[in-house]
Amino acid sequence: MKKFTLLPALLAILLWSSLAALGAFTQRLPPFLVTAIALFIGSLLAIHRLKEWRVAPRTLLIGVAGIFGYHCLLFTAFRTAPALEANLLNYLWPLLIVVLSPLFGLGKLTGRHIVAAMVGFCGAVLIVSKGKLDFAASLPLGYLFAIAAAFTWASYSLATRKLPPFPNAAVGGFCLLSSLLAALCHWLFEPAIVPNNQEWLALLLMGIGPLGASFFLWDKAMKEGDPKQIGALSYLTPLLSTLILAISGLGELNTISWIAGALILVGATIGTLGRGR
After folding, report:
1. Cβ–Cβ under 8 Å, residues 18 and 209
2. CA separation for the pair 35, 30 (Å, rounded)
């Protein structure tokens, strides 16, 4: 069964890769509204195990801080910094999962893990930026929010291994409370917009997949797998996202995309193969 420990992580990564394509159908909607609705739908995936949502206050706080805190910081980054650079800095989280693992007592960091994470990050830089980056000489506040978002998701992912054991279904409670907080932010900071039929369908798919089932799969992956391997593997997210956009006709592949893809696959391979293989 050991060889299947990366399967939940791969499935979560695949679901997150669909977010950009689905997001293309909700661009008219404010981000906190999208998050609130999708997370609420995601929480319903575990509603049949409602009794398992009861966890220690510290566990609940970390769960909500991870899911809501990450999205809140990321959306703030997109509002206060160029979207391209903010998204690139957000993709520091797989690298941070690898680098911070020893601080959480989750094994020693080897040169192989560092090389894998850095090669994957270089691939992410290319595929997100398409070879065009323009970081301002002065650091916009939004960049700090993007880095904080990356730290938040990496820390949440690693912290789930150190918390007292809690049921996987409890992630539904994290999603529900995060949904309510996102709804509050929408009410306070965003204009009221009613989704149309196409947008409701996209929101439903988001809630079932990238903002729903993915969190349950990720929780399982981080509890059972090696976080350093999972971190290296996570750079498949921007690669698969680009491929899905290209296949669906919402994006295109170029030479830089193929080079980036090769770097990401090399990094993921180095990071997930056992020592000596």
Report:
1. yes
2. 9
